[in-house]
Amino acid sequence: MAAPAGGLQWEDDPVAVPELTPEELLTTTRSVRKRLDLDRPVAPELIEECLRIALQAPSGSNRQGWHWIVVTDPELRAGIAGYYRKGATAYLAAGGASAAGYEGERAATQARVSDSARYLAENMHRVPVLLIPCLEGDVTQIPPQVQAGFWGSLLPAVWSFMLAARLRGLGTAWTSLHLGYSREVAELLGIPPGYSQGALIPVAHTIGTTFRPAAREPLETVLHHDRW
Predict the structure, then answer these.
(1) pLDDT recorded at residue 202
(2) What is the distance between the alpha carbons of residues 43 and 48, in angstroms, rounded to a whole number?
């Protein structure tokens, strides 16, 4: 299914997605949790279009060792969501995404992040599409000095998928808390030995299509010239 000329409006989608400049795309592709439309199906063609774009991302030595598991079966989604919920419960109980240690608007932002993370954990099974990107190689056998290169062969492609999804009115969020149960998920999905899961990406149409750049710490607080 190809996008119509002059804009992004799909035959089965009465809502036109705003046209975005490259800078707008990069600064408004947000982690979407509460604004995922949990009741609207996603056409397989849209997912495949996004994945074809993702395949243009770089990979180490051009190995292209990635594999993509698109999960739509309700029972499998429920199984994955159960493991994700276990990981998220432990993470949030330990203070992950907590507002503790922050003040003012940053504390309020972190409180919203924590609340939306909890919402996603409680509703992951309802997300119409779950994407698990995998990479050839057992991460437990990868030496620390080459870990960055290993994941660098997968993560840019996942981000390309998320950007492509945004252009098609789809929301995504980068999650990884299911990885504490990666063996169980691998068994559930039939992932063979020798492959590592890199993330769990929920995908759904968004409730509304307008997103804004997020507040960030000033560049001056993290920028270093020549030395730290």
Answers:
(1) 98
(2) 9
